[in-house]
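DEPOSITED CHAIN:
***
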Amino acid sequence: MNTAMLQGKTALVTGSTSGIGLGIARALAAQGANVVFNGFGDAAQIAALVKDVAAEFSVETDYSNADMSKASEIEAMMAQAQKRFGGVDILVNNAGIQHVANIEDFPAEKWDAIIAINLTSAFHTSRLALPGMKAKNWGRIINLASVHGLVGSAQKSAYVAAKHGLVGFTKVTALETAKTGVTCNAICPGWVLTPLVQKQVDDRAARDGVAVEVAKAALLAEKQPSGEFVTPEELGALAVFFCSPAADQVRGVAWNMDGGWAAQ
């Protein structure tokens, strides 16, 4: 660990057992932050992950399996962080799910689940974290909003609606905390090769009868001019910047890291 900019701080990262969330959690731990992990997966693998991150970065870690679609479980997770660490200094709202279909074919229960997990959960975590942050006059809320918080794509009505809503929620949170040491910003990634995106790649390969690598290239070519995936490590570095003193006046932004996607 080269620096300890976040020594003594506690970060809670939803959806952090893999992908973007894990990349951000590791980046924050590398700066000395204690980390509360959240997400689903194999219990033994998650236990090993939580233990390994603690050992690698000499920080304290904890884990909650709270379902982000359920307010009561979110409340229990935040209470757990309060009991273990005295609250949450850095809140990263990353949990998300996806479903792809035309609007007229979109299952209502899928719409409800996506809005609940991708948008409403950020409201619940934020409302519970803000009092403590304001009391300390320091806090960082980082919402993972996706480039789909800035632009639309066909067959992703619920996801795009949720992510646009998250960008709006970010702006309001930033305005309400503007006179304090608490900031709120959104990160809007383009394609990142997460398990969620890998499934889309695999589905595309099966649909088109092509190799997975060909499907990856085709996916990138449609939207991402760089032709390269954004990495969780790059997103983690941006999250660390948002937590730094250099970002004290970065408030309410929707910062796209998307290989040029939204520039088109």
